[in-house]
Amino acid sequence: MRMLLPVPVDHLSDVDVDLAYAWPGDPEPLPWLRANMVATVDGAAGSPDGRSATISSDADRRVFGRLRGLADVVLVGAGTARTEGYRPARVRPEHAERRRAAGQTDVPAIALVTRSLDLDLGSDLLARSTVRTVVVTSASSDPGRRARVAEVADLIVAGEDQVDLALAVTALRERGLRRIHAEGGPRLLGDLAAADLLDELLLTVSPLLAGGAYGDDHAVPRILAGAPLPRSPRPLRLHHLLEDDGSLFLSYRTDT
User: Fold this and answer.
1) Which of 24, 17, 124, 5 is nearest to 61 (CA)?
2) In terms of CB atoms within 10 Å, which of 11, 31, 80, 175 comes out highest?
3) Tens digit of pLDDT for each residue in 95-121?
4) Collapsing DSSP states into helix, strand and coil, what is residue 168?
5) φ, ψ at 61 (rounded to 5°)
6) Cα–Cα distance between 185 and 146 in angstroms, integer?
7) Domains of the chain in sequence order
8) What is the DSSP letter of 215?
């Protein structure tokens, strides 16, 4: 892996990758929300089975692991967690010492966003996480279900009929989780952008073509879906560009 911008650097080590993706203000991080997504060259955010793994690569998985190692919390929609087969974050010895020095838990917490609370409460993600999973829902969710979820996870109720992501992000930060790393899916990312909560977009562009549609004329998913932006199109600033075997790793920030 190499850096092309802002300064050309060949052969980035894991430490170099961590430095490239350091959180603004570290070691005293600013409240910051970044999202990480992968897409094909023509903009598909997943394969026909709805998963991103098929359009990923070894280099993308390397960056994915480093990004998780830097985060306080991973924010993800419950549907995406089901589709992608999310499991608890694993303790990585190469991250643990640095995380402890930064005042972080050994692994990032996973925060699931769900209005319906349609969760498998016996899953590893909820029942056997090293750090207790956080579940974010709305007041309109079933009270009995909320009580059962609260037995195995930390519960955040944000908003009335729908999940209010601004309230959810504030609640996470009040828990000391300032380095918020969103992993999708597209609808959650679209809602975060529409609520003006997104500080940084990390995009892996894989050297693949998806085409105009998948089988049965199903639309090809994009990395954002759903809610429109209040200001569209919104300008972004390129922060860095990395490359590995044809895959591009872009960091765009919204502080224009």
Assistant:
1) 17
2) 80
3) 888 888 888 888 899 999 999 999 999
4) helix
5) -65, -35
6) 23
7) 37-45+52-208+219-253 (3.40.430.10)
8) G
